[in-house]
Amino acid sequence: MEAAKEDRLLGAARRLAAEVGRHLDIDASIRLWDGSTVPLGSNVTSGLALTIASPGTIASIVRWPTLDRMIRHYARGDLGIEGGTLIDFGRKVGEDGARRRLRRMRKLDIGKMLVPFLTARADNPDRSRDFEGDAAGVSRKKADNRDFIRFHYDVGNDFYRLFLDREMVYSCGYFTDWTNTIDQAQVDKLDMICRKLRLAPGDRFLDIGCGWGGLVCHAAEHYGVHAHGITLSDEQLAMARERIAARGLSDRVTVELRDYQDLDGEWDKIASIGMYEHIGLANIPGYFKKIRSVLSPRGLFLNHAIARRASRSGRRFGTRAEHKAILKYIFPGGALDDIGHSLAAMERAGFGVHDVEGWRAHYALTTKHWCERLTARQDEAMQLVGAETYRIWVAYLAGVSLAFERGSLLLFQTLVTRSPRGASPLPPTRADLYR
Question: What percent of the chain has pLDDT over 90?
Fold first, then answer.
């Protein structure tokens, strides 16, 4: 009886995969739990395949068809990708016309094929690595900021070394040529930030969210500034201090554990690279007000941040399933603004906006490199952080890369002065940026 039931479920899965393939028609396959493969197109030549570990995985997703459920099954290994990466598979599914063809499938036919799974035993994916608490940061307190940052960054420096560049820069690279390595792209990014800020010897330079110290070290070594960085990650702080000492920069570079809300002093140039996304939309006015309060009268501030597209209706954003997943598993407390609102908030805070540059394609390629590099070091990653954390990070990097490719995620660098009035501290053209 059990064997007959298993055969019935296997047959239903094969028919379902064949029907999906008939409409999707891509160069990929589905590999089922018995090892059999069903092509998802009429001319499949690649070894790229979505793997399904058991009928219980399908039964689970059929009964609870949520993105969170799929993520948990992927984290457990019930769903997987072989013969490529999630980016490869996502690109195939996202090919022009593929999703449109998929939407033409008759829901009644699909429903009939899924009937056997409605009564089958469903696998229950246990809780994966997720943030315990208010991941959306609705009632955020200052102490929560540190918990949010630690959840993401204190996975461990050795883990991040597996896929980041030599400088350990965990933000968008800058590709002066699309064939450049990620190491070159990150050095070029650090240098472009310094040039946009027109750093000069003796400048007091502040990096808000300094990571592992790549930017403050680069700025001190190549532009002669006195640099200071702040972070809320103990792991990052320890490594940044080691790197500063190893480079002989202790007299010019300092880093500390500090919340941006506690900033004081006066700085000639300030950078916020990949920090804006962490503060929460409700805190944007206070964030810009604080930065402006510590920026010198003729100072420059560079804000480098991921953005989402503006709402067509003009209303503020709700929380989509993808964003909820990122809050829960990757970046608790995070929120994305649209560039129009960010610029308006800067002007309301008193800044003068001078330059806005979009780097969407650069981040799509950066996260693609990261995803491929981490995938290539799967065994080491699993030993360091466990299989579930590894898979969640791969899924995150792949999803982000695809979102930047498709334009649902954007990235902008915005350069502002402390005031829109008076003589500009900037040169008359951008020529110096591209010397």
Answer: 67
